Amino acid sequence: MSAYVTDTIAAISTPLGEGALGIVRLSGPDAIRVAGELFHPSSGSHLSQLAARTLHLGRIVEPSTGDVVDTCTALVYRAPRSYTGEDMVELTCHGGAVLLRRVLSLLVAQGARLAEPGEFTKRAFLNGKMDLSQAEAVIDAIRAQTPEALKVAAAQLAGRLSETLRPIRSVLLEMLAAIEASIDFPDDVDEPSREWLASQIADAMAQIDEMLATADVGRVYREGVAVVLVGRPNVGKSSLLNALLRDVRAIVTAVPGTTRDVIEEAMNLKGLPIRLLDTAGLRPAMDPVEVIGVERTRASLRDADLVVMVMDRSDPLSPADKAVWREANKPHVVVAANKSDLTHAWSLQELRDYLHLPSTVRVVETCAKTQQGVPELEDAMFATILGDGGRAVSAGHMPMLSNVRHRTALEAAKSSLKEALNTLEEGMPFDLLAIDLRAAAEALSRVTGESVSAEVVDAIFSRFCVGK
Fold first, then answer.
1. pLDDT digits (tens, 9 = 90+) for 163-187
2. What's the pTM?
3. What is the spatial distance between Cα 115 and Cα 125, in angstroms, rounded to a whole number?
4. To bridge 402 with a disulfide, which of 73, 85, 217, 222 should be the other Cys (CB 3.0-4.6 Å)?
5. Does residue 239 share a domain with residue 358?
6. Are residues 163 and 287 in the same domain?
7. Contacts of 87 by beta carbon, 8 Å cutoff, 6+ apart
8. Non-local CB neighbours of 144 within 8 Å, separated by 6+ positions
9. Is 454 a domain residue?
């Protein structure tokens, strides 16, 4: 912990490559001094004399030679009014990788240390500028693949998750204080009503349940979904992939077995980050290459979050379709009755009866060639992925749990509260009830980082990029 009080860190905070601008940032007690050894304001003042939160033009000069390295701007922040809570300087230079690395090396030569991954945000957490759930939202915002995923991360970054948990934890601590006071001072303090305690615990559990109900949807927005197109050869899987992407990404021919390998493309499905996979047709393989393709199809099916089984509406139903359905029959599956522009060989009801499809499985008529039914297929995919959980998202009244660590902590809190209710119902002593309530409050505090080990903190920030 002492290192975060004494040393100054530096890092390139923008992606390396060719660009108009690149930022090198410093944070720590010597940030202004170190940057001031290199940066010479055009005004003639020293960097340490510049007002905080003001932008100044100047030049980076190598101290040992006096050579001008770059013309750039410097932005000074003074503790505690900065991102990290420490003195900070951000140097905005021209965006070449060689140039930025040169500036960084000069800063290190003046006494700065190369920052570790996520160390700027870690210092913000350690200095009380944000709680741990907000710090985790920083990386989620950076990695968000859709505007809706960014919205989820932004809500957490703004503290909505913490704001929701704080009143619940306060109630638990209030109950705990009342119980412990009655135990420590039995002659002066009355025991709290068991009915009141049970009511408060039940209310806390209900709020936690409401948050846990968003966890699966939150995970989808944060991590994305693997959607696998599967079916017999030549049913139009590749054409449907192109139709969903509104682009020609897969080769389409009339020859069965054209697709031999898995083709993966990114897709934004109504805000959900999707990995869309086109696969080799499922049938007895005709050659060694096709054998490998079919094996990869089956591997993709094992990892799929959603399966879209593609059927050829113009081809009579056959045992081969039943064989495909046996492999495609997953918890989340949609059936696309493709080539619907051709003469129909079967009705949708005949399809349901033949494959014994559950009533919950959505069947959509599509024509990849004309885009007919593609929007309806997207609706069916979206609804199947989210289920009823999507309603909580659209309502917007409850922040989503998108992090497994948060979900685990809330499940632990709920478990402890359930034990507390059992303790009350069985008429057991209050000191046992206090143990359960304390465990629940501690579990909630792990979300915000008020009660979390250094190892957990280090593991969280190790996932960040350097410079963040």
1. 999 999 999 999 999 998 888 888 7
2. 0.79
3. 15
4. 222
5. yes
6. no
7. 27, 28, 29, 30, 31, 32, 77, 78, 79
8. 150, 152, 153
9. no
